[in-house]
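Much of the work behind modern protein science is quiet bookkeeping, done one molecule at a time. The protein below has been through that process, and both of its lines are reproduced in full.


***
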Amino acid sequence: MPSPHPAPFADRLAAAVAEVGSPLCVGLDPDPERLPAPFVVGGAEGAAAFCEAVVGATAPHAAAFKPNLAFFEAYGPDGWDALAAVCAAVRRAGRLLVLDGKRGDIGNTGRRYADALYDGLGADATTVAPYMGADSVAPFLEHPGRCAFVLVATSNPGGADLQALDVGGEPLYRRVARLAVEAVPDEDASRRGGAAGFVVGATRPALLAGLRDEHPGVPFLVPGVGAQGGAAAEVLDANAGGPILVNSSRAILYASPGADFAEAAADAAADLAGRLR
């Protein structure tokens, strides 16, 4: 498990990116419909084995890994054990662990979610849904050295249905971004910009650039490069050198359906990492 008093997340993010020379984050979404056949028959254990092999193959090119909780929870109780095994593999590789569950609730419920992800599974960061307001984000900011990546402007086509709504003369996503940063406790202001991060889709580079201008020190988690159509060069230009992780899942995980899946994943990760330098 990670130290109970780790360095600020922003510092550890910078160190992880510097170590591999790229802000690549590899998403781990073990979809039974796309796994190579030998791993499908193994159920949750097969999914874990697949992800562990991908972690081992791609770790030289990735600053972080992002398991998507839904793909593990779908296996039932065995899925939690599989997720724990994958998290352990990421920690052994010495890479940042981002758990993508998009949790968000108030009070003790939110705290139990945060405890499960940060303490139980050892996450360095999580994804958080802010729809219930600041008190649904706050529990995820109570763990020193961890980061809550709040859903601000997502890459899916329907994201604009709510995120672009005008609220007091500005789009809702900008209000959410400020809410996330301001939710960091005043008594621990040194964590501001490190404990609260933004999820910003790669498919909206102009929007990403605007958020970066307003929040130069906030870590961004950027999905959507690869299968969703986001362009690495556009993301880097829009980010203007700010702290960032750029996630790719399917384009790396499923680079080959055959026995060479790990080698193909490594090649795909190396290619994207090179384009993110």
Notes: Confidence is low (pLDDT under 50) at residues 188-194.
